[in-house]
Amino acid sequence: MKSPQPTLDKTIASCCDHAHGHTSQPTEPPQMPQKSGSATAYRIATMDCSAEESEIRRALEPVTGIRSLGFQLGARTLVIDAPTDVLPLALTAIRKIGFDPKEISKSGDSGDISGAHSDQEHGFSSGITRLVFALVFAFGAESLSFLAPDTQPWQIAGMAIAVIGIWLAGLDTYMKGFFALRHGRLNINGLMTVAVTGAFLIGQWAEAAMVMALYAIAELIEARAVDRARNAIKGLLDLAPEAAEVRQPDGIWQVMLAGEITLGSIVRIKPGERVALDGTVTAGASAINQAPVTGESIPVEKAIGDPVFAGTINESGSLEFEVTAVASDSTLARIIHAVEQAQGSRAPTQRFVDKFAAIYTPAVFIIALAVALAGPLLFDWTWLQAAYKALVLLVIACPCALVISTPVTVVSGLAAAARRGILIKGGTYLEEARKLKAVALDKTGTITAGKPELVEWEIISPIVSKERVAAMAASLAGRSDHPVSKAIAAGLNLPFNDVDGFEALPGRGVKGAVAGENYVLGNHRLIEERDQCSAELEALLKIHEEAGRTVTLFASNEAVLALFAVADTIKETSRAAIADLKALGVTPVMLTGDNSATARSIGHQAGIEDVRGNLLPQDKLAAIQEMQKHYGLTGMTGDGINDAPALAQADIGFAMGAAGTDIAMEAADVVIMNDDLHRIATTVELSRKTHAVLWQNISFAIGIKVIFFYLAIFSGATMWMAVFADMGASLLVVANGLRLLRSGKKERVRPTSSQTRQTDYERSTG
């Protein structure tokens, strides 16, 4: 098996360098949270959505000298690339709008690839305690307003309790809203600040405290829910053990921390243990469960020379492997970082929602102002009633549920894909995959296994027994290093006899003496040169060649004894995968550089009607352009350098991760880590599910707003009821988005080749 390590490393490292121009947002790729040269990373605990990112961007616009900004919302980090003397100005500007950036030390967080932190670090434990006290004070203020006598001392007491509740619950929110309003920006915090201040001024201080407490609790719960989505992939990192057994120079095995193990070290893993680092097997054989990295449901047999990945599980034998990547640079760590970078890009629906929210918030503020001013003139309301209804409108107008619904859903979709071995390089491709009308498929290594196999052999002359022919042919083939000879030897799977006078015949085959008899194993040209061809043999050769097979003939000095047909066979999963695509309404098209006869044969076996052969790289590119005009949105799947132009031209490029080349994988938008074509249909299905959940969330969030708008104006909806409605809507859309993480966890287990296939020799001797 070819080791995919170098390919995966380069691909995952360049995951955000899309080949097309349709990248999502002009944010620089977020860097790892550590200081590097003039770029400094800061953690901002209260920055967890695109609205806050936009605020910080606007605040930093007047600061000259900033070269670039890198936002990592999942990790709540901001990397500022600027001269040292500019950094204090940037931090001051950020603090003025109510955020508190903390510089991340090199030693503190550099190893935290996912950016996920404990409850204590995010302030959840202390935050919830503070908010519980705030809620108690808010209930106290409400109780006094209902039960206490309407006298000045009790009113002062109620006001004091409400102030304490507001101070405990939302001083940060209130100050951020105040700064936003002072700079002429109407955002969520600004709406809450106006609503609370207005309620306090019209004597509804108990409701002001209740609104702020409920809003703060909702914000904290939402932040935790968003963390769950953004850090869903982080659970994979925990699969890699913290320590491993390493062979020392004196031969003794010693347990070392994974972070301290260097390249080239020899690590030992026992049955049942998890692999701590990426490496190449140097001793032993075992079956490895690679599901965390590639999504494969069947364990993969590993022997000397095969790669192993951090986080995978050793199921049977003991293995020793040479470390090829340190802990922070393992394939698993890079996958997690790549998904984080993809999370930083905004999908089309998310960009739409952000634009809508930017218009929606000031529009609602104007409507609320109109209700406060025009309500008493048009309806039988007092000025206080009109003002109160306007404040209720402001509370229910908070676009939290709307703004939060899209990133949670998209991130959940990206994480769900990564769990199944599908690395999607951005939310744009996750959303657009549902629109695919056609997918072009390369043949070699994509539909087929990419290596020759003995598919059929038969006796031509019965002068020697079938068993003896097989034994002698296997002996000759076993001495050759030619791929076709190796395929014959592997297919026959027999012990080798001694070969005397073995000689390779360049461009023709091999010859040698077995058990004192001279034999040749070669191609059609060699048999013609020996004058051993016949019309019957020519007709037989033509049948095999039209089927796309390479024919090798085994002959003695007297006659041709046997014919061996070798071909690049289709993968076991290809037929079902093509059928899955068709069931989804996606038309499969094969594009290959092989001859038309071979292409038609493979296409027929795979169930593809539109087969195009003899294509050069530029021909594949032209074919993609033609398909885009004919079908519409077109995908391309490939693994070779010759596929890179077509992958880049396609609307969505799928690269095969295990066998793919660096160039092909960097040009693609989606990387299939285990080379299973089923994953293309899975990507389309996941895209459709994601799109459906997105619009369910958007419709629900807007529907709740419309209902409460009506209740606020024409019924008796209160401010705290509005907060409950907004909080409930936010939590429901988040929960709905998180459903994608559970989608498809249990996939159909497909049998391995050893379970479904006999060797051709067994069938032929049947």
TrEMBL record:
Catalysis performed (reactions): Zn(2+)(in) + ATP + H2O = Zn(2+)(out) + ADP + phosphate + H(+)
Primary residence: membrane
Domain P-type ATPase A: 239-340
Cited InterPro entries: ATPase_P-typ_cyto_dom_N (IPR023299), ATPase_P-typ_P_site (IPR018303), ATPase_P-typ_TM_dom_sf (IPR023298), ATPase_P-typ_transduc_dom_A_sf (IPR008250), ATPase_P-type_domA (IPR059000), Cation_Transport_ATPase_IB (IPR051014), HAD-like_sf (IPR036412), HAD_sf (IPR023214)
Enzyme class: translocase
Similarity field: Belongs to the cation transport ATPase (P-type) (TC 3.A.3) family. Type IB subfamily.
Protein name: P-type Zn(2+) transporter
Organism name: Pollutimonas nitritireducens
